[in-house]
Structure formats: C-alpha cells, structure tokens
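fwd from M.: "can u put these together and see what the complex looks like"

so here's what she sent:
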Amino acid sequence: MKILAVCGMGFGSSMVLKMSIESVLKSAGIKADVRTADIGIAKSETADVIVTSSEFSKLLQNKNIPVVVVKNYVDKKEIGEKLLPIVQGEKKGS
Amino acid sequence: MDILVAVLQFIVNEILSKPALLVGIIALVGLLFMRRSAGDVVSGTLKTILGFLIMSAGADLLSGTLTPLGAMVQAGFHLHGVVPTNEAIVGLAQKAFGTQTAAIMALGFVVNILLARFTPAKFVFLTGHHLLFMATLLAVVLGSAGITGVNQIILGALLLGTAATVLPALVHPFTQKVTEGAGFALGHFNTVGYIISSLIGKGVGKVMKDKSRSTEEIEVPEQLSFLRDSLVMTTMTVIVIYLILAIIAGPAAIASQAGGSNYLMYAFTQALTFGASVAIILMGVRMILAEIVPAFQGIAERIVPNALPALDCPTTFTFAPNAVVFGFISSLVGGIVGLFLMGPLGLALIIPGMVPHFFDGGTAGVYGNATGGRFGAILGAFINGLLITFLPALLLAFMGSLGLSNTTFGDADFALVGILSGLGSRTGVIGLYVIVIVALVVLVGLASLITIRGKRKAEEAEEAVVENA
C-alpha cells in the first residue's frame, strides 16, 4: 500500500503529515509506504491514497485515487478517523 | 603516531570536508539512533547523499540562468538585480561553504535539543529545510566576515540553536490563537514578519472592532487555487520578469549570451530553465529531508519530554485558507511598492520572489487575520511584504562574494539574523562569542518567560484545550 502526503513544496508540512500518518498506521498495525510529494509529483505518481489539505484536494480530484482531507497535520486522532476506514477498505478491495 | 595523524587527516580532508558525505553521515547516525533495519539505514544514507548531489547539480544549472538576469537589470536600470530564492542561494553557497553548513546544521540541532531539554522553552524545530537554509546563511555570513573553521561552526551552531528555540517561542502566543491550541508551534524563519503582522492585526482589531471580520467568511474564487502550485507560480513569474527586463534592457544587453538567437526567446528559455533548476534543487532537498527530519524527530522525542514540535508554516494554512490568499496578494503588493523605493534609496533591486511572498505573506495573513480580521490580514501582510524586500537588500552587504550572485535569502529572519551576526562579527571572534552567549541567555530567558506565562494563561482559561501546552 502506497500513501502520498502532499503539500506545496513536498518537504515541509507534508513531512509532518507523513510522520503523523506513519505513527497512526503503526499503532493500527498497518504496513504502508508513505511518501511526500508536491502537487506536480502527486499528479504524476500513482498511489493508493492521497492525504492533504482541503486546498490541495481540489487540485487532485480528477485522479481516481481517494483523497483524505486533514485540517490539523499533527492530530493523530483526526488522521486516524479519516484515513483508517479508507485504508482498511482499500486492503479488502485489492 | 604518523598513522593516526594520517588517518585523521584522511577523515577530515576526504570525508568530513565533502559536504555530501557529511550529510550522509548525519543521516546515518540518525537512522542508527532510531534503530532502523539495515536495509533502511543503507538506502536512507545513500538517498541523502544522492539528494545532496542532485541539489548541487540543480544549483549549477541555475547559476547559468541568473547571469542574463544580472546583465538585463544592469543595462536597464544601472542597478544590481536580485531575485530572493532560498533554494537558489543555498544551492550556490554549498560550493564554498558546504561542509560548514552541514556541521552547523547538525550541531545547531543539538543546541536546540539541549535548550529544549533544560529550559522551559520546549520548542524543537522540525522544519528541516529552514534549518538547512539558516545553517547556510550563518556559514556564509560568518565565513565572509573572516570567521572560519571550528569557530565558524561553533558560533553558527549556537546561533542556529538559539534561533530555532527562541523564535517559535516568541510567536507562540499568536500561534495558539491561530490554531486554537492545536498542539504545535510555528517553525518558519520569517517569525519577525508574523509577530509584526499579529501586532498590526491587534491594533486594527482595536480600532475597527467587529467591522474587520474574519477572512474565512468570504468566498474566494476556485480559479485562484493554481496559486498553490509553487513550481508553476515561480516559473510563471520568472518568465514575466525575464521578458519585461529583456524588453527594457534591449537586445544588446544579452547579445553575447544569447549567441545569435532572438533575445526574447533567449530570455524565455532561460526563465524556463530557472524553473527547471529550482525543481531539481527541490527534489534534492526533498531527498535529504526525507531521511533527516524523521531522525531529528525521533531524537527529539527520546531526549525532550513534552517537546512542542515547531513546524513549517503551511500547517497553519488549513486554519484560515482564505487569509493565505489575502496575505499573499497584499504581501506581493508590499514587495512591488518596496521595489520602486529601492532605486531612490540606493539599494539593490529586490525583485519580488513568488515563493517567499506566498509562504511568508500567506502566513502573515493567517496571523493578522487571527488578531485583527481581514483588514489585519491585509495590512499585516503588506508590512511583511515591505519587510522581506528591505531586509534581504540590507543583508547583501554581509554575504561576501555571494552577495553579488543575483539571488539571496528571501525570509525576514534569515536577513535579520544575517545582518546582526554580520555586525557582531566586526568585533572579532572573541567579541562575537561574548555577544552570541549574552544573546543566547537573554533570548532563551525571554522565551522561557513567555512560555511560562502562556501556560499559566492556558491553565486559567477553564475551557482551553490543554493537550501539549
């Protein structure tokens, strides 16, 4: 399973997001390859799930990949609630 | 004995003074410290080294595209033209100061961790690229002032560690207002701009009261969302700037470089190459940070209990996305107003860089909005725009030969720290040690006071969400 954390530059806030996602997945016992990306890379890369802010999600709607919108990048509760159902659904589907 | 000396010499000359390898070693230590698997350690270390080499390759490509810019501004305005772009100046500076930069970055983070561990200011700076940029700035300014070697590294690390601890602490009362106590701090070296914007917002809020409502009550058109693609934005502005400058300067100014091709098309392709080289540098930076930032975070978590992570500015954007657009536009207007004042004041022509205005101006807008609504956002970000035009111009004098390279650091804290440490260096090495240590004690004391006061306030407010404060 591959997850992209997306922000404007692809190494600032997306790095924060990536570390939060990894920690959430680790405590849920899910293995995943979480990478950071800027919007250009996110458009050209394939992934199973994209996690980003609401502003960037608008630019990524036309990809057939579920987009999880997060407000607080360090809030593991918020990330868990939004991401885990999708991740678990993807796993069953594939 | 001779063998020992030879081994030491080999380590210093062949490994530690090769910045790519030094950065690799820093990543290696971090990965080992986090007890990652052997495969992760090998691939992480290699990727960091490759990232550094990619960054250098991007900088080589970039420097060629800056030459026509300088020539065109010189011919058109008889001024020194500068586009502040952190990635560009940092890439260029690694040739002369790569080793010192890597050492200052690693040791500066250690200073940050120690200060966070042993003082009430528990801020751990996790915005890796800004640590890298500030380390570069300090290496350049101190090195250009004749402070070299071990002293350059120690003084640089002390200054970096102090800035990384103190600046997030000083702006934290406002950060909490922005994020409604979300449990993180702001780690972005344009803090002076954000504090000023917050204070202006506070003033606006007092004068206008509820006439200045929040930016988030306004609909912002969807079409503006392309602004968030920073590579597209940088390239588009550089194209516009290069074409305007080429028209003003005329074909003669860049004829020798264009080598027979049409001067406008030459300027156009150089602008595109500028965008491409920034993309390469960014890719290199991304590869370096992907390994180093998690390592830093892992180290911080083990050593500093209750550490408050200081994070990159877009983490605040989600709390007021409209204020980002307001802030960007009015910061840019401030930059353009500033541009016209540079010539008469006899300063270098600072051409507004889109990336600093977007991220710094956007954040200034978020902070100004939090304290003073939409007019706070507009006025605060406008002043931020002036600030990140004038400060980089004043910084150039302290950057030695790199001050002439047509690009420079774009954010307020880099410029301010650079100017102050450049001035401090004039007192000599010992004088600078005294100044740096006094500044460290005073500033960390101030940061601790603000932190303790903030905590007390949070405890008093019964409904406040106290999670990490």
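replying to her w this: Strands of chain A lie at 2-6, 33-37, 49-52, 67-69.
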